[in-house]
Amino acid sequence: MATRKKIKHLVIDSTGLKLYGEGEWRVKMRKWTKHRTWRKLHIALDARTQQLRAALITNKDVVDPSGLPRLLKQIDAPVERVLADGASDSRECYRALARRGARPIIPPRKGSIFWSEESLEERNRNLRGVHKRGAEAWKKQAGYHRRSLVETAIFRLKALFTDKLRSREIERQRREVMVRCAALNRMTSLGMPESYAV
Questions:
Q1: Please, is 136 exposed, middle or buried when counting C-beta atoms within 10 Å of its C-beta (0-12, 13-18, 19+)?
Q2: Alpha-carbon distance 4 to 13, whole Å?
Q3: Alpha carbon distance 97, 80 (integer Å)
């Protein structure tokens, strides 16, 4: 997953991978069960090449903002823009992006206020854009729609390799996820379907 070529748009998201427990249907019928658990997979995707550039597996209790800085540490290449959902609207994420010199495209949460810290000026810029144009118009102008590419990559990852982890130990689970990501990158490099509006 490593390359030093500049990344113009890095898109980030997270999803759950089941460890063990009853399936969706049984939980719906019998409600919640304490024997059901999962790991959280955080991934970073290069929007141009659609290659996974970084992956991280954590416990289900780890909040999304702590995943973004750890993903950035795995990437040696310069990054121009980072697109993430509102869960990454945190000081921790904006500071990590400022250290990398990357422009954050992260929608501020509803009811957000301006932050005074200098390294968080990009966040205030996003908030001003939302106030001025409205959330939908800001997203369109900022190119936030590219973030859907990482959601598609997550769908492909789960469809090809299942949404369950086979390993029981965390270190083996990390290796299992890395193998899946490398395999998906290999498949993507062989060719992606070309789509166009009709």
A1: exposed
A2: 22
A3: 10
Closest CA to 45 of 66, 74, 19, 16: 74
Which strands sit side by side in the sheet containing 79-83, from one edge to the other?
A: 52-59, 37-46, 7-20, 79-83, 103-105
**Would you state the pLDDT for residue 115?**
83
| Domain ranges across the chain | 7-189
Coil, helix or strand for 183?
helix
Let me know how long the chain is: 198
How far from each other are the two terminal CA atoms of the chain, in whole angstroms?
34
pLDDT at 111: 79
Could you read off the pLDDT of 64-90 as tens digits, one per residue?
Answer: 778 899 999 999 999 999 999 988 888
In angstroms, rounded to a whole number, what is the distance separating the alpha carbons of residues 123 and 104?
Answer: 7
**Cβ-count burial of 59 within 10 angstroms (0-12 exposed, 13-18 middle, 19+ buried)?**
exposed
- Half-sphere exposure (Cβ direction) of 188: Cα atoms closer than 13 Å: 23
DSSP-assigned letter for residue 102: P
Token duo for residue 181:
């990501």
